[in-house]
Amino acid sequence: xxxxxxxxxxxxxxxxxxxxxxxxxxxxxxxxxxxxxxxxxxxxxxxxxxxxxxxxxxxxxxxxxxxxxxxxxxxxxxxxxxxxxxxxxxxxxxxxxxxxxxxxxxxxxxxxxxxxxxxxxxxxxxxxxxxxxxxxxxxxxxxxxxxxxxxxxxxxxxxxxxxxxxxxxxx
Length: 171
Hints:
Layout: H1 10-52, H2 60-63, E1 72-77, E2 82-87, H3 92-97, E3 98-100, E4 108-116, E5 119-122, E6 129-133, E7 136-138, H4 142-170
Antiparallel strand pairs: 1-2, 3-7, 4-5, 4-6
């Protein structure tokens, strides 16, 4: 009897089959679903931050951070696996970063409207209104806060998702 070694490549073939399965679009589809889930989570976090920071809003801003809503920006590019999220609401950046009450060089301006309790309602047909003096209105910084929250969540979310993929494809 001589010495010999038998190489059973069955397990190796199974591993290669799993890599093939993952590489034929299934993993890319899983990545797209994960990217969409991250986007949905981010929209929820932005809305939570707008509410938590008591950002002045007529509901247009808050609602614009819902996928498919008026003013919402949600562009998924499957080719390069990218997602662009945001809002087209004109005052979004002012509410986030801050703004002056008047254009540069204008010390005061008249804004027509009416007061309803503590809330001012703009109405160009009214003779009543308010006189705005130039000053800086600090933003609530809801956007940066939402990004910070997502950055803190990402390592855990990524670790869990990668482990799920490994378990799914290579268990």
